[in-house]
Amino acid sequence: MQSSEVSKMSIVIEKSRFKGLYIELKRIAVRDGIFVKNIMTFVVNAMELVENLDVLSGPEKKQLVLDLMRKIIEKDKQLELEEKKEISYLIDNILPEVIDTVVAASKNDIMINVKKRCCKLKEFIKKRKKCIRGY
């Protein structure tokens, strides 16, 4: 099987799982609520739901997390329009970098509490600084 065929097959498989993941994340959203103040907890919950989907690459998992979150915010009838806009802004502009940072930390690519690794953290921040400046 060629690489493009595997990629297309994984997309079809994951589209069928999207609904199940959406339902599970929606259940969490109903239980905990979605607010600007708890968006970090919500994104971590979403990341945990998709992390074991072995047929997806890291960037595909990240995109799936963001797509799930967008859909839940879009369909939420309890959120006011202004709060939807704020959360949507975070999803589109801040959370992609947050996800990258969480993944890097989980792989020990950044060592926040180790002074010897301070330079590595500074390099990581410099690379992402241009994205953060827009906020």
Notes on the structure:
The chain is globular and about 45 Å long. It contains 6 helices and no strands. The N and C termini lie far apart (44 Å). By secondary structure, it is mainly α. The chain has a domain at 3-93. The longest helix has 30 residues, at 3-32. It is 74% helix and 0% strand.
Gyration radius, in Å? 17 Å
Written as H for each helix and E for each strand, in order along the chain, the element string is HHHHHH
Kindly state the number of beta strands. 0
Q: Report, as a whole number of angstroms, the end-to-end distance.
A: 44 Å
Give the fraction of residues assigned to helices: over 70%
Largest sheet entry: none
Mean pLDDT: 79
How many distinct helices?
6
Secondary structure category: mainly alpha
In the predicted model, the low-confidence regions spanning at least 5 consecutive residues are: none
Shape: globular
Strand content: under 5%
